[in-house]
């Protein structure tokens, strides 16, 4: 049935009133029906004001709500969420017939809906709350994942309207479960939203001035608490404010995708390499290969405590990231994508960590990749020095490569273009023994691959070589036979003599 003129006017008046009293960035979210509405933002962004307003919109227009508003600690509710919802209800819904129980912190409305308040530290009160139709969790970063799961279980009841949990929080820690659960992967049941004080047109000028002042007095605090960038609690190894500032100003990548190829009958060699653009691909390109420019690639494999295979490509003249491979590959697929990546970037020097597995490096050797990083190894029996492919991380080499990376990036975070690498840098901290490592629950694959890439740079040219031919065009078949029959030390000598891929 078509709405009457009066009904249309009522809807128009309602919508105009909502637009006048709400920030534009939140308006579409009034109609969002996903199970999880995850609102991350900096201080003063207005996310909590919106959450309260949406709760009131629903409980006053939909009969039979039992909406739960909670925080980790019960005593913090009275002066925050309870006071806010009271003020909003009196201002915007004076005709909703609200009854207030201040002792119980309970709001009831004429249509039978009610809003309940409880802290997660008050299990007895939570036990008495049932048939929940919606939940708003303020300062959700205070919860552990177990708290969230218990609330999620309670949001199950027969109800003619959609059930929704609204989470509002400041993104303090890059290692937080909220980031892993809702921002590091896509959940079809969730809508995520970011906001800052710049989105809040109702914020008083004095409050804006206070927030802006942190840019000069504490840049890291400004990036994390004002601009809502993921941060870290504790002492970061890298310059946290510089990393956060770089995160806030990252340009978009030039392309994203993966390499396709045709495998030969031996199952080892590949030909017909092609780049395929794919917005969900594991390889992110920041700058295409330039003729004559030498490149290096540092690799970190999925070893103990890690599940990412990473390849960091650097322009060896400038040290700037040119591309990053990051995926949960099998070892052989990783090695073949690294082969393609190396060939794509002018026959880049490739150095892959061999601590947990030597297979990717061995496979690259079998594939006749002609430019692998060579390390010196002392034979424990003879004491003689021999040469082997790949980078080995030890108690001696790890501090060296990390110190070099810290030195390089101290004043040049603009060399890093990859968001996940920068986020890992924010969560790379010193533990109680002052050893630099990934914070609990986070990864360091991108950081370690980047450190390896910078460390191996001296084995690659630092100068542009125009009109440079590849080894495949320059070497004769006899030269290739000599190369394939040589040991690693012999191959290194031949590459130096004849020129590498």
Describe it.
- Helix content is 35%, strand content 20%.
- The strands form 4 sheets. Strands 3-4-5-2-6-7-1-8 form an 8-stranded mixed sheet. Strands 10-9-11-14-13-12-15 form a 7-stranded mixed sheet.
- Helix 8 crosses helix 9, helix 9 packs antiparallel against helix 13 and helix 12 packs across helix 14.
- A hairpin with a 5-residue loop joins strand 18 and strand 19.
- The chain folds into 3 domains: 173 residues, Rossmann fold (3-Layer(aba) Sandwich); 214 residues, Nucleotidyltransferase, domain 5; 31 residues, no CATH class.
- The chain has 17 helices and 19 strands.
- With 501 residues, it is of the alpha/beta class.
- The termini are far apart.
Secondary structure layout plus pairing:
Elements lengths: L4 H17 L14 E6 L5 H15 L4 E6 L6 H15 L6 E3 L4 E3 L5 E6 L3 H5 L6 E5 L6 H10 L9 E6 L7 H7 L6 E6 L9 H13 L1 H8 L13 H9 L6 E9 L6 E8 L5 E3 L9 E6 L8 E7 L5 E7 L3 H14 L4 E4 L6 H8 L7 E5 L6 E5 L7 H14 L8 H8 L1 E3 L5 E3 L6 H11 L15 H4 L2 H8 L3 H11 L3
Parallel strand pairs: 1-7, 1-8, 2-5, 2-6, 6-7, 12-15
Antiparallel strand pairs: 3-4, 4-5, 9-10, 9-11, 11-14, 12-13, 13-14, 16-17, 18-19
């Amino acid at each position: 049935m078509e709405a009457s003129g009066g009904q249309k006017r009522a809807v128009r008046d309602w919508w105009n009133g909502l637009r006048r009293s709400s920030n534009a960035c939140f308006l579409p979210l009034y109609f969002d029906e996903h199970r999880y509405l995850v609102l991350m933002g900096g201080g003063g962004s207005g996310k909590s004001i919106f959450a309260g307003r949406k709760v009131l919109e629903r409980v006053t227009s939909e009969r039979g709500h039992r909406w739960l508003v909670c925080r980790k600690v019960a005593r913090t509710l009275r002066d925050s969420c309870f006071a806010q919802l009271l003020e909003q209800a009196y201002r915007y819904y004076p005709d909703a017939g609200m009854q207030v129980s201040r002792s119980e912190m309970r709001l009831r409305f004429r249509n039978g809906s009610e809003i309940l308040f409880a802290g997660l530290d008050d299990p007895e009160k939570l036990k008495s709350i049932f048939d929940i139709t919606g939940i708003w969790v303020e300062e959700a970063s205070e919860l552990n994942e177990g708290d969230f799961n218990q609330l999620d279980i309670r949001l199950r009841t027969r109800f003619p309207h959609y059930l929704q949990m609204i989470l509002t929080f400041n993104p303090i820690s890059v290692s937080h479960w909220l980031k892993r659960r809702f921002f590091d992967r896509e959940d079809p049941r969730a809508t995520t939203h970011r906001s800052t004080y710049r989105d809040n047109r109702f914020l008083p000028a004095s409050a804006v001035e206070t927030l802006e002042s942190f840019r000069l007095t504490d840049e890291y605090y400004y990036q994390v608490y004002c601009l809502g960038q993921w941060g870290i609690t504790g002492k970061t190894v890298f310059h946290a404010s510089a990393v956060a500032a770089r995160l806030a100003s990252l340009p978009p990548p030039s392309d994203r995708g993966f390499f396709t190829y045709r495998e030969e009958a031996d199952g080892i060699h590949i030909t017909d390499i092609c780049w395929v653009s794919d917005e969900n691909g594991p390889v992110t390109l920041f700058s295409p290969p330039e003729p004559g420019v030498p490149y290096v690639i540092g690799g970190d494999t999925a070893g103990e405590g890690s599940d990412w295979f990473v390849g960091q490509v650097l322009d060896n003249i400038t040290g700037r990231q040119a591309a990053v491979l990051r995926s949960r590959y099998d070892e052989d697929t990783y090695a073949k994508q690294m082969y393609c990546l190396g060939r794509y970037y002018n026959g880049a020097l490739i150095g892959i960590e061999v601590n947990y597995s030597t297979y990717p490096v061995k496979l690259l050797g079998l594939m006749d990749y002609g430019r692998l990083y060579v390390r010196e190894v002392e034979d424990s029996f003879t004491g003689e020095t021999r040469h082997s492919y790949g980078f080995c991380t030890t108690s001696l080499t790890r501090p060296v490569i990390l110190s070099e990376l810290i030195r390089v990036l101290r004043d040049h975070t603009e060399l890093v273009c990859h968001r996940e690498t920068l986020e890992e840098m924010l969560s790379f901290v010193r533990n109680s023994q002052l050893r630099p490592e990934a914070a609990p629950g986070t990864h360091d694959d991108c950081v370690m691959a980047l450190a390896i890439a910078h460390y191996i740079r001296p084995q690659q040219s630092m100068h542009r070589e125009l009109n440079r031919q590849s080894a495949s065009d320059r070497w004769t078949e006899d030269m290739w036979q000599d190369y394939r029959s040589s040991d690693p030390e012999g191959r290194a000598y031949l590459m130096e003599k004849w020129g590498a891929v």
